[in-house]
Amino acid sequence: MDPYGTTPSETSSALLLCNNADVCSMVEAAVGHLCTICAEPRSDTRLLFIYAADNMLPDLLFIANQCRQNPNLRPILISPRPFDHLFETLSHHGIFHVLNVGAYSFPEAMQTSVEICLGGNAQFALPDLPGIETTSLDLNILTRKDYQDALIQFEAFFRRQDLPPERLWEMRLLLDEAFNNALFHGFQDEDGMEKYSHEAFTGLYDNDLITIKMAAQDSMRSVLVVSDNAGTLEPDRILSALNRQISRHGIFDRRGRGLYLMRRLSDRAVFNIAPGRMAQVQLFFTHQLSPAWKNLEINLAPGHTHGLKK
What are phi and psi of 243, to 5 degrees? Predict the structure, then answer.
């Protein structure tokens, strides 16, 4: 699975609409070395950062017009407060990024978003944390037995971090959810039907592949990454699932709860999608007090657009 090993374009710009000096400084510090921050649209503008002050949505018509004029433009809201109750509205307008300034991962998420949009090597790669050694384990899953063996390796790998039993249980639950989501919902036949079932699955067909990555970046940070090479996961589906669970309209849904649990129980959930090629979820755990404010991070590979609903 290729990580899109390109480098960000030095000529790209990001339009920043923000009247908060502190937030402007945070954005400049996080991504100023990756692109030019400007206050007016330019021909090379690839990102649109909009600060949503006082938990109010910005001018969505303006955002829609900018995206129609430039289909490759990625709008990213910067919010001082949680925005989960507005997921349905955001999805309708093709907005799949909300970065909370109160989230512990705000600078890292900002940088990752820019690198991916500009074609950087962050796509499907864990963020590089200077000065922190990363221990990792990569596994290819082709059969049911491969996954059973992966669970044994999961226990051995993360127990070395001396994690609390309840945290280890949550991580194991999310590994199951991410794997099942990739296996049973990611792969489809020619008619668009799910290719595998719980009862009949013994192994993947043809060139289908699921990979699992486990990483420990220090004694206080763990990462789980599950990828498939189907790439059928869609941003709208993620937001719809999250919104139905948050609104409690989807309590009895048979699908979608796994996506909600991934974001709810991890400290940071990042969804990376290359349509028709790959879908991936990165789950970060800090093993500290779980942040009340979390980002919404759904990244599309360069060359793909989110699209706007009419």
Answer: -65, -40
